[in-house]
């Protein structure tokens, strides 16, 4: 597993405990007292490290190569998932996963960004950065959901929309703008969950929902810390300072009213236990859909409108 700088002492102590456990078994030596002391020390160290994380630490966890993706969560949260492909205009974009499924027996439409876990898959999925056809595929699915009155669940996890020449030629900006416009007026419940990085318009294109929830160590911003540092200080090495000032973490965004709920992560990050993390997401998702399902179509549209209208109010106060 990739080691992060800030939790290096935790990883080293865990490895030490494992070494002692293995040695104890092989040599048939009782080291239970020593192991117990180290486990208590580990518990204290984890508390110190993970309860005092800086914004840059959370950025590193959000970018962790082993962080669970949309396809990792789907089997734990939904049943009968059937993936649907293509935008019916140009082609299929593997950076967007979409389909229909059931959540506790309720038919829903699931849409999410999808990055790879290794180089080969990342290339196939364009590192989770969608082309216009990806957003048009998502739009096709949300319109289908609106037609058949299925709630929509969106998983956000992208550095941003792909900025390449081909994407611009096929109408990247228009595709994102069309999604924002159409999702704003949907007459079905829309719940959005940031599970990793939420970058710029590429994330917002799936983020116009009645509720926006974030995993505890996810980020949501208009630009990456490196990009902001390059603009502000002409030095991308100042990314750590930029992350502090940009207010891109879940606690900051919750305070500003942009995020509705912070979903707790398993200690050390979601990549340590996907199943346990999925249960945390399930609890929040169930509560959100239960509340939204009780609303009329007009109330759902108004609820979504009021949510976005209220963003930024604290700045003027």
Task: Record the SSE blueprint.
Layout: H1 8-27, H2 32-50, H3 55-62, H4 70-77, E1 79-83, E2 96-103, E3 106-113, H5 119-124, H6 132-147, E4 152-158, H7 165-169, H8 172-184, E5 190-199, H9 200-204, E6 211-215, E7 219-221, H10 225-232, H11 239-246, H12 250-255, E8 261-263, H13 274-293, H14 297-310, H15 313-316
Parallel strand pairs: 3-4, 4-5, 5-6, 5-7, 6-8
Antiparallel strand pairs: 1-2, 2-3
Helix pairs in contact: 1-2, 4-13, 6-8, 10-11
Walk me through what this model shows:
With 317 residues, the protein is of the alpha/beta class. It folds into two domains: 7-52, no CATH class; 60-310, Alpha-Beta Complex (2-enoyl-CoA Hydratase, Chain A, domain 1), CATH 3.90.226. 50% of the residues lie in helices and 15% in strands. It is built from 15 helices and eight strands. It has helices at 8-27, 32-50, 55-62, 70-77, 119-124, 132-147, 165-169, 172-184, 200-204, 225-232, 239-246, 250-255, 274-293, 297-310, 313-316, and strands at residues 79-83, 96-103, 106-113, 152-158, 190-199, 211-215, 219-221, 261-263. Strands 1, 2, 3, 4, 5, 6, 7 and 8 form an eight-stranded mixed beta sheet that branches. β5, α9 (200-204) and β6 (211-215) form a beta-alpha-beta unit. α6 runs parallel beside α8 and α10 crosses α11. The longest helix is centred in the first third of the chain and has 20 residues, at 8-27. The chain is globular.
């Amino acid at each position: 597993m990739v080691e992060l700088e800030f939790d290096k002492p935790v990883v080293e102590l865990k490895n030490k405990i494992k070494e002692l456990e293995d040695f104890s078994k092989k040599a048939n030596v009782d080291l239970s007292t020593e192991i117990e002391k180290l486990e208590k020390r580990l518990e204290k160290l984890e508390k110190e490290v993970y309860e005092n994380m800086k914004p840059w630490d959370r950025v590193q966890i959000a970018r962790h190569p082993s962080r669970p993706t949309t396809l990792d969560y789907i089997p734990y949260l939904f049943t009968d998932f059937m993936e649907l492909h293509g935008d019916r205009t140009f082609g299929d974009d593997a950076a967007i996963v979409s389909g229909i499924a059931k959540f506790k027996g309720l038919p829903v439409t699931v849409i999410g960004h999808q990055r790879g876990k290794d180089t080969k898959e990342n290339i196939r999925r364009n590192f989770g950065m969608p082309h216009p056809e990806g957003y048009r595929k998502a739009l096709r699915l949300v319109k289908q959901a609106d037609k058949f009155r299925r709630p929509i669940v969106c998983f956000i996890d992208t550095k941003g929309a792909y900025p390449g020449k081909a994407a611009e030629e096929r109408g990247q900006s228009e595709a994102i703008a069309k999604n924002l416009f159409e999702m704003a007026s949907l007459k079905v419940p829309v719940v959005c969950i940031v599970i990793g990085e939420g970058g710029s318009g590429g994330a917002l294109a799936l983020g116009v929902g009645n509720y926006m929830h974030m995993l505890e160590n996810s980020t949501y911003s208009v630009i990456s810390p490196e990009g902001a540092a390059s603009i502000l200080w002409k030095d991308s090495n100042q990314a750590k300072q930029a992350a502090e000032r940009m207010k891109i973490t879940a606690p900051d965004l919750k305070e500003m009213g942009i995020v509705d709920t912070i979903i707790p992560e398993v200690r050390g990050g979601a990549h340590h236990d996907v199943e346990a993390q999925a249960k945390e997401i399930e609890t929040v998702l169930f509560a959100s859909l239960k509340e939204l399902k009780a609303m009329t179509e007009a109330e759902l549209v108004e609820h979504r409108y009021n949510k976005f209208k209220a963003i930024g109010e604290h700045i003027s106060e």
